């Protein structure tokens, strides 16, 4: 078990203790409350409230409740202190020498709020930060409405959105939405409604062109409905799989239409930061006392955080370890490996051909194709 796991397990133990304590406390508190109610009920039945005050004062139910609350709070407070002890001090090391650009940060938070549909919070932030209205505001407002509809399995708004954009930037989305509409009609209004939709919807007719095989599958499935289990058409009616898939496809196409990432940038940065933090802390702890260390934004160690967080927005030459740019772009070698143009020129020097730094394949000449990362 490594140190992070140990820290985690000690917190889990704290949490278990809190859960146990809360269960017992709830029992005690409910018991005391029941007793108060019972005493009041009894007094009411006997129409004699003269003893009630004394009885309640003797039993001290409120004092017992307060005491139980205090005991519970002590457990919470202990866990909070443990968390501070375990993480707070460490995190400082991880973020040393990092200067956050408040303007960039505000933009990131604004976009994040818009993505999550937190429009009120977004507007407040725009006002308080004195920044400009994001040109994504209207886009995200529309997207949020459609996402909400899709989650409620309503397709109309998404179909309308896709129809408007399909001619400009064709994608699979419109067809997938219309197909889902057919399936939904079969499930809710019956076969006739589905067949009518397929016949009368201009969009469906248009999308069906060139998709003969798939249309045949849908038509056969309609004929067999509802006895589809264990047939090859069942996947068409697998709602648990199809609705999330359609929602994801919609988000993907919508993000692409604005050239933005499908996931919130700030959430991605946060998740990537959590993965990188242990190594960053270690690195900063080791180097913080070395006065000779040159502090730059680049970290001289590789931090592997998984392929989900790789975007290829820049390329580091494996020979010179420099980030490529328009003056020194990445070039493709014969074997498929990539290095920077300057490194390639240095390696060629006056020779006819040179060996790839990664594999034994030789590449001829200096006129190598440049790669453009988008
Ligand atoms: Zn190679």
Automatic annotation (TrEMBL):
It comes from the Eukaryota. GO terms for cellular component: cytoplasm; GID complex; nucleus. InterPro entries: CTLH/CRA, CTLH_C, Fyv10_fam, Rmd5_dRing, ZF_RING_GID, Znf-RING_euk, Znf_RING/FYVE/PHD. The keyword RNA-binding does not apply. It is found in: Cytoplasm. Residues 26-53 form a coiled coil. It holds the Pfam family zf-RING_UBOX. Keywords: Coiled coil, Cytoplasm, Metal-binding, Zinc, Zinc-finger. Residues 317-359 form the RING-Gid-type domain. The keyword Coiled coil applies. This is RING-Gid-type domain-containing protein.
């Amino acid at each position: 078990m490594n140190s992070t796991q140990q820290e985690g397990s000690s917190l889990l133990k704290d949490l278990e203790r809190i859960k146990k304590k809360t269960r017992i406390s709830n029992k005690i508190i409910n018991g005391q409350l029941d007793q108060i109610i019972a005493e009041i009920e009894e007094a009411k039945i006997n129409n004699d409230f003269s003893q009630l005050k004394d009885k309640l004062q003797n039993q001290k139910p409120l004092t017992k409740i307060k005491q139980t609350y205090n005991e519970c709070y002590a457990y919470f407070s202990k866990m909070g202190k443990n968390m501070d002890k375990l993480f707070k001090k460490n995190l400082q090391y991880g973020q040393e020498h990092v200067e956050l650009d408040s303007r960039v940060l505000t933009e990131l938070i604004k976009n994040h709020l818009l993505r999550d549909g937190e429009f009120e919070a977004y507007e407040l932030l725009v006002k308080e930060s004195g920044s400009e209205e994001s040109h994504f505001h209207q886009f995200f407002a529309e997207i949020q409405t459609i996402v909400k509809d899709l989650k409620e399995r309503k397709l109309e708004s998404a179909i309308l959105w896709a129809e408007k954009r399909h001619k400009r930037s064709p994608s699979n989305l419109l067809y997938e939405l219309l197909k889902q509409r057919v399936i939904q009609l079969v499930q809710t209004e019956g076969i006739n409604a589905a067949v009518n939709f397929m016949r009368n919807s201009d969009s469906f007719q248009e999308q069906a062109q060139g998709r003969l095989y798939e249309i045949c599958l849908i038509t056969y499935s309609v004929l067999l409905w509802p006895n589809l289990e264990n047939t090859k058409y069942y996947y068409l009616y697998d709602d648990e799989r199809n609705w999330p898939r359609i929602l994801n496809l919609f988000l993907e196409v919508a993000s692409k239409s604005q050239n933005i990432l499908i996931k919130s940038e700030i959430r991605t940065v946060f998740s990537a930061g959590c993965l990188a933090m242990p190594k960053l802390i270690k690195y900063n702890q080791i180097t913080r006392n070395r006065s000779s260390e040159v502090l730059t934004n680049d970290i001289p160690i590789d931090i592997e955080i998984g392929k989900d967080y790789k975007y290829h927005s820049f390329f580091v030459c494996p020979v010179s370890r420099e980030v490529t740019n328009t003056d020194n772009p990445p070039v493709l070698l014969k074997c498929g490996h990539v290095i920077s143009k300057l490194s390639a020129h240095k390696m060629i020097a006056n020779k006819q051909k040179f060996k790839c730094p990664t594999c034994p394949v030789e590449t001829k000449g200096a006129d190598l194709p440049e790669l453009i990362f988008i």
